[in-house]
Amino acid sequence: MVAHAEIRVVHCGGSKINFREPVITNDSRFLLCASGESVKVYSSSSEECIHDLQGHTDLVSGIVRNPSNHLQVYSCSTDGTVRLWDFTDGILIKTFIIGYPIYSIYVSEKHGGVVFVVIPMANDKSSELFQLVAVHLPRSVDQEVEARELSAVLYDVSPYPGAASFGREGEYIAAAKGLQLEVFFFKKQKSYRFLLKSGIKKGAKNEFTCVSCHPKEDCIATGHADGKIRLWRNFNQKKEYTYSTLHWHHGAVNTLHFTPEGTNLLSGGIESVLVQWCYTQENQKDFLPRLGAAITHIAVSPDGSLFCTSHSDNKITIIQSCVKVSAIIQGLVKGEGVRTDLTIDPRSKALVLNGKPGHLQFYSLHHDKQLYNLDIVQQEYIHEEGLDQFEVVKAAFDTRGDWLATVEERKQKGSELEINLKLWAYDEQTQSFVLNTTVTAPHEDRITAMCFSPSPETTMLVTISFDGHFKAWLLADHSDTKEGASWSCDFVGGYHLLKPGCCCFSADGSLLAVGFQEVVTVWSPASWELLTTLSQPPGAIRDLCFGRLSCSKYLLGTSTKNQLSCWNLLTCSLEWSTPMDVSLLQADPLSENIAAFCSQSDCSDLFVFKPSEPRPLYSQRALCTGQVQHAVFAPRDQMLESCEERAQWLNRSQLYFLTQHMDLMTFSTKTEEDRLLASSKQLVVDDSVAVTPFYLLLGKHRQQQQEKQEVLTNPMAERTQLPQGSIAIKELLYTPAHVLPSASFLCSMFVRSLLISSSSASEEKEPVEEEMESEEGDSEGEADPRDARQDLGGSAAWGPGEELGAPALTKAQERELRRVKNVDHSWLSNLLEC
User: Fold this and answer.
1) Could you tell me the pTM of the whole model?
2) Is 424 exposed, middle or buried (0-12, 13-18, 19+ CB in 10 A)?
């Protein structure tokens, strides 16, 4: 039994990679970004995720390079810790416990052994006042160290990392908030404040949005909400300061960044254009347009060869010296809302939901990367406010992943609602979906739900609409003709002119339940006969869900009157009912478990239960703030082996849900986290690791193949096998170089592992000499077969025969065997060559 299999809610794959400014390493090979509760290390050339640095227990709020070691980075989190990582090997080196939630982190080469962090003025996450403090990192051999030596630098600062910056090699720090700019000089231990007028009368918005300091001169660049950039000078004396103004952005300046030498200033905003200003000639500027989405952060490599921009669509663009885009790292696209719900592609096991406007995105939860986008609307999207365009509102897959159904709609002022139902067939060659059928105006009103039948016999889609009808669309196979497969409407149903709100198929596809306001109807898809109607407490049906496996006889439904009901389909009666404000009901396709998300004031609760049992398997109060409206069970690649009852519902599938703030969350057990942490710390590869090219060359698999080949080609020889899977070779191949012992120490051990001992070499020569003596004995005709066997006691030619229990050969048979062996067969090889 697992002693403590604690289940906690964590940010999972699909977290925001644009939450904080990314960090480019000194050699420009890697890019690090905060992603939920972890730090991801990407290759700047291949876009692949190299490492996922896990260890924080809350949101990672900042990453900075370690000034004293270019192979290390610091990360901070709202869990109150600062962690030091070796990003090349993905190893956690040290954890500094601060004890306060941390929202930003800064470092300077001039201040060695000190990090500057932004923490609440009161030790509370709900606090709205923040301060910048210097944290002295103690030197200790322990992996976890408490860093309690804090000294305040600035009060009432912004928690946004872009609102503060070090200037002129760390001699001062500038911080902006609202209409105030404050500059603190470390040598003088004095700060100067500069205020701007609100500028409401002139229609200007002078609020500060971001700050960047020149690396070598006394100049501070500030961005403002009205799109202006101000360059501040002479700020070391409060009354003599000056500033000049640059203006190109028509919206707020989101981010600013000087290049390492200070020759250029980079800016970005909602225009999706990277602007490069020449520092010495302020009127000269270059542009890199059409980057796809609003720019939120800009990062520059220490050598200035790479630029990096974060975008509002959860994307990171890597740019080579403001000339061309070299790589794009695309995260999970999160718009204003998810209208298609969350679905799982049965083929790729990818999460499918709304992506770019008019698209569906396929996102791999296992690899935490976007696979591809599918253009549904197939029209150019015009970025103009107030323009009505087609939106994808519904999506559904069949059980095998061969068909995808989508619904798009557009509502224009003064005109009717336009609806298109599209059926997409999966193409094996392109490994994507191809449009097969388009149905214009499939219903007279908005489609509220649709689902495929899980029956393997027929491919059927059911759509329901506010027009009072549900329609069954059937796939007609015309493989014998040139037309191919096509879809057509097979049945149109309704019930007393009531408007349907939801529908659901049973696990075997033999029943279809449709909720018509306050009545649940059960239909037979085979004959479209209305089998029964189920009554329930007052309130319109909000959601329906069939039980699975052993609970397939149950049908569950939620109502707008905060009631959760369960019917027994065998008796057509109400099994049980309980008052619950269920906002979402989700069934696990691989088990009997059902997840119910309930709304309680300003937060959501979760209950996981089986319809046949009165006690829930798992419950979580105050799961997240706001209401959960989208959730899905995703099958696991490898089944968990959790013994504790409270965690067994996570063994086969993993539950994902979207919060009100569009954060993708999931559940993690302590045993699962410990296993992942242990595997990330393992340096030496063991036998359980997947086969690699080095393993094929030097491992047991190659060794066994050589043994079989030697027995077939030369059964008379028994070679001493080289210790190819030795610890010395594994240490050399799999252990990082900087943690290996000296080469002089490993050299002797490595050479000895490759040498053959003199005793084994002499044993190889003995069978050959003994064989020659036995042949001489045979020519005289006086040798005894028993004596010959004793002389060849070490030979591999007789050993296997004795082990297998082969019958003893007569003297004549042995002589004939040796004669055949000595026959010259070279003529056969010459014949084959001809």
Assistant:
1) 0.70
2) buried
